[in-house]
Amino acid sequence: MIIVALIVPLIGGIVEFTLSIGAITGGPLLAPPIWALFSKRLTGKATVYITAVSLSVNLLFKIIFPLLINSKLSRANEMLLGVVLPFVLLVCVELYAKSRGKISAEYLALKQTKAARKEAVQQIDIEEQMALKNQNKFGLKMIAFSLTFIALLLYVLCFFFADRSPLVGGIATVILISSLIPWRASNRVIIH
After folding, report:
1. CA pair distance 97, 91, nearest whole angstrom
2. Angle at Cα 12 formed by Cα 5 and Cα 25, nearest 5°?
3. This model's pTM is above 0.85
């Protein structure tokens, strides 16, 4: 914290420091993990390498080059570098992996895990299926009962607030009619 506090005046103040940190770290820290969420080719190692390279290049242009050549990037160029460099590296890695027909081992492991979970769910025995249907039927009936009870309470409120009774009565009627949806659904649940 002391080192950061000493650096802030050299950079040009807290606003400049905050914008610089955002420009340097925003793209490199956010783009690779977000890209990895949607890519089946990007590996964990590639994500880390792209983040490290992007951060290093951004720090090089923000700290080292201004000291060596006494010239620094403008705010717009700094932010552009912070966003474009990780994106370009991600596209290059994605295209390279696609051209080689590579798919990430982590992606394949995730697919296997999902398939195993799906298979385990399909192997639920009959007793569990009966219990689940009973719970579903009970839950639907409770929802229908709750909606009906709320509608009845609103009808009672109509007597106490005569000036608002058409509005409250209308809402109560809509709720009462909507309680038919879970009630009918509960009657469709067949338990063998």
Report:
1. 10
2. 75
3. no
Sign of CA dihedral 39, 44, 46, 51: positive
Which amino acid makes up residue 113?
T
The owner of tokens 């492991």 is 109
Torsion of CA 19, 20, 24, 27, to 10 degrees: 10
Between vectors from CA 147 to CA 142 and to CA 152, what angle results, nearest 5°? 125
Any idea how long the chain is? 192
Three-state helix/strand/coil letters over 119-143: HHHHCCCHHHHHHHHHHHHHHHHHH
pLDDT digits (tens, 9 = 90+) for 136-170: 888 889 999 999 999 999 999 888 877 888 888 99
